[in-house]
């Protein structure tokens, strides 16, 4: 239960920074929605949103899909306040349940989810075994054949390819008017490189091991990639 008022300054900063770091941020949600719509059709559907803080999945998918209901999970109380505020603004509160915590706090149920998303979450989980556990837990809450979208930072930290993409990411911030010293500090200070990068092939292997099939990469911008697949 999120009772305290949300922080509008934090909400604005989050929205601004996400769109600088990922210039195709809004297109990402449009693409994910298109995949879900093709899989779900017009039926009533329950969606699990892992990392729902900020409420952007709710904003992007809630108003135009009145047959969808959402269960959102996030560890951050502050970010869930933003999601709750957005749900109220969009008048979709009756279709939204928000849970502060991790996937371990989502109670098992016979009524499993028709679809799920995990957008910009996995790279905050450092241990590969914990990444696998998260994906396995998500899959366990999904109906057989249900569509899943995963978006995360990816790449081999030791490879030149990731370093080249890092330069592009830096240019996003410079083009947005960020001071060069601050951009360099964001890299050298460990900000962006503190998140857990793993190679693309390893991400696909984790999805397979977790029980997902039909794994297809559908999205790339800068440091981030997206995969669509189905629960086996």
Automatic annotation (TrEMBL):
UniProt-listed InterPro entries: Methyltransf_12, SAM-dependent_MTases_sf
GO biological process, one term: methylation
UniProt entry tagged with the keyword Methyltransferase: yes
Molecular-function annotations in GO: methyltransferase activity
Lineage: superkingdom: Bacteria
Pfam family, one: Methyltransf_12
CDD domains, per the entry: AdoMet_MTases
Keywords assigned: Methyltransferase, Transferase
Residue intervals of the Methyltransferase type domain: 48-147
SUPFAM superfamilies recorded: S-adenosyl-L-methionine-dependent methyltransferases (SSF53335)
Protein name: Methylase
Originating organism: Paenibacillus pectinilyticus
Lineage of source species: Bacteria, Bacillati, Bacillota, Bacilli, Bacillales
């Amino acid at each position: 239960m999120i009772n305290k008022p949300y922080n509008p300054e934090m909400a604005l900063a989050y929205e601004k920074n996400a769109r600088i770091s990922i210039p195709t941020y809004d297109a990402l949600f449009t693409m994910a929605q298109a995949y879900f719509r093709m899989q779900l059709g017009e039926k009533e559907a329950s969606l699990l949103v892992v990392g729902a803080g900020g409420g952007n999945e709710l904003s992007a998918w809630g108003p135009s899909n009145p047959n969808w209901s959402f269960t959102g999970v996030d560890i951050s109380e502050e970010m869930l306040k933003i999601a709750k505020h957005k749900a109220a603004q969009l008048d979709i509160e009756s279709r939204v349940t928000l849970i502060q915590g991790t996937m371990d706090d989502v109670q098992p149920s016979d009524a499993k989810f028709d679809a799920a998303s995990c957008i910009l979450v996995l790279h905050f989980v450092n241990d590969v075994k914990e990444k696998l556990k998260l994906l396995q837990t998500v899959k366990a809450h999904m109906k057989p054949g249900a569509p899943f979208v995963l978006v995360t930072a990816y790449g081999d930290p030791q490879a030149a390819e990731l370093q080249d993409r890092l330069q592009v990411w830096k240019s996003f911030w410079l083009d947005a008017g960020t001071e060069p010293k601050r951009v360099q500090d964001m890299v050298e200070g460990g900000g962006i490189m503190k998140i857990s990068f793993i190679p693309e092939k390893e991400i696909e292997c984790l999805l397979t091991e977790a029980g997902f099939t039909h794994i297809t990469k559908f999205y790339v911008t800068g440091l981030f990639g997206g995969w669509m697949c189905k629960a086996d």
